[in-house]
Amino acid sequence: MPLRIAAIIDRVRSSFFLVPMLFVIAGVLLGELGITIDEAVNDQAGDLPLRLTTTVASARVVLSVVAGATITFASISFSVSLLIISLTSSQYSPRVVHGLFRDPYNKRVIGIVVGTFAYCLVVIRAVRGPLEEGGTPVVPSLSTGLAVALGLIAILSIVAFINHSAHSMDISRILHRITSETIEQAERLWTLNDEAVLAEDAGDPGDLPTDDGFVISLGDTGWIQQLDIDALLEIVEDGGTLQVETNAGRYAMEDMPLCTIWPPPVDPDAAAHRARDAVQIGESRTMQQDVTYGIRQLADVALKALSPGVNDPTTAQDALFHLGSVVHELLIRRPPEAQQTPSGGRVLLLPQRVTHEEVIGLAFDEVRIAAIGQPTVCIYLLGVLHYLLESVTARRLADTSALLRRQAELVVAGSHQAGLLESDRERIEAMYESKFNS
Q1: Has residue 65 been placed in a domain?
Q2: Among 89, 158, 190, 194, whose Cα sits 20 to 30 Å from the Cα of 29?
Q3: Does 199 map to a domain?
Q4: Mean pLDDT, to the nearest integer, of 323-336?
Q5: How far is CA 438 from CA 187, 228, 414, 416, 433, in A?
Q6: Does the residue 350 lie in any domain?
């Protein structure tokens, strides 16, 4: 999928505007359709059941009440949404609120409410008394009845919306959503390591060409959301070499190197323009090609919970469990190889690719440091590391095992520097001995 289309789809999914706008359009069209149907059966109004007929005055009252109520409901919906976003940002992390913007349930409820309001405006415009234009009363009885039904649906939707919003602040749901999204991206971007071959076994990108390459720099500032490697390779002639100097999830600054090409292209300006078009840079970081962003969010939740202002070790423990699930999924998979040979004899070098070492460090380094004064959290951290160690050991991933053991050793070393009670240090050491030295 082209980068621009993928970026537009991602923005649409995160937008609070598009879905309600579509419901407003649907409400206007439904109102016009209802009026047309009412006009078609107007001559047979006497054949309608008594409960479906209405007067000009009552139709205006009903439509006015429903319209006023729904616009009030809409304001409540927006207020609750902003409150939830504010509380989630301050309580857990500003980086987890993007999931609330992407929640389709909230958008649909707001859409139902504003769509009902638009419907009532269209229908009430068509109500006409006998002394008004033409002297013929127009009472859209069926449309008024439908407005009542839509009003009841809007009321129930608001109740369901408040219930959903309250539960959406549950930290377990937030962590589960982040974990699911990250694992989904890992399954899409990283190869399952069935043969138990470490991605790091691919080694360094290898020897570079001896002659000078053509360096293309970034032309904008922001987060690198996506890289179109295939488009970058098209710039390189057959038998040439492309080294990508950055990666999705990195922050781009103007004139930072994007890639280096050997041999230099015939038309440098055109090549630079095509290369910059192959990079999607935005204001915010996304998980479209960045599997580490989910780890960053989970680690941020744990760090926030361990901060003195919050002091919620239970939430930190929950975040550790979810971190373990995400890291496990990445450790049993292989990231893109450091050196690849796509079609045309071209060589692709990815020195900035994410490695297992980077994943483990990002997941546990900061949390381990913040948890040194919390013996119970340290014990749970050792438990998660042991779970990961058993998994990679079963797959004979020796280098990754060493990284996990090193993290466990640092947990114990940190407990000795934290000024803990001797009994607390003994608990941590006992956990370490039973899991890593048994």
Answers
A1: yes
A2: 158
A3: no
A4: 92
A5: 33, 47, 21, 21, 6
A6: no
**Residues whose CB is less than 8 angstroms from the CB of residue 161 and which lie 6 or more positions away in sequence, other chains included:** 77, 80, 105, 106, 109, 110
148, amino acid identity: V
Would you call 244 helix, strand, or coil by DSSP? Answer: strand
More confident residue, 116 or 194: 116
**Cα separation values, 342 from 199, 268, 337, Å:** 18, 22, 12
Alpha carbons 46 and 249: distance in angstroms, whole number? 67
Using 50, 70 and 90 to split pLDDT, how confident is the model at 201? very low
The mean pLDDT value for 411-418 works out to 88
Higher pLDDT, 192 or 174: 174
Domain limits for position 47: 3-169
| Three-class SS state of 352 | coil
Q: Cα dist. 108→8, 10, 163 in Å?
A: 20, 17, 14
Asked if the structure places residue 56 within a domain, the reply is: yes
| Residue 226, beta-bridge partner list | 280
Spatial distance between the Cα atoms of 157 and 155, rounded to a whole number of angstroms: 5
Cα torsion 292, 280, 15, 34 to 10°: value is -130
Check if the beta carbon of residue 157 is closer than 8 Å to that of residue 113.
yes
Residue pair 348/242 in contact (Cβ under 8 Å)? The answer is yes
- HSE-up (13 A, CA, CB side) for residue 387: 16
* Total domains, the chain: 1
Distance CA 161, CA 150 (A): 16
Q: Which residue has the tokens 């004979």?
A: 396
DSSP codes, 68-118: HHHHHHHHHHHHHHHHHHHHHHHHT-GGGTHHHHT-HHHHHHHHHHHHHHH
- Under the banding of pLDDT at 50, 70 and 90, the label for residue 100 is confident
Q: Where are the beta strands (DSSP E) in 144-299?
A: 191-192, 214-217, 222-227, 241-244, 251-252, 257-262, 279-282
Q: Crossing angle for the helix pair 375-394 and 422-436, nearest 10 degrees?
A: 10
pLDDT band at 199 (very low <50, low <70, confident <90, very high): very low
pLDDT tens, residue by residue, 6-57: 777 777 777 778 889 999 999 999 999 988 888 777 655 555 555 556 677 8
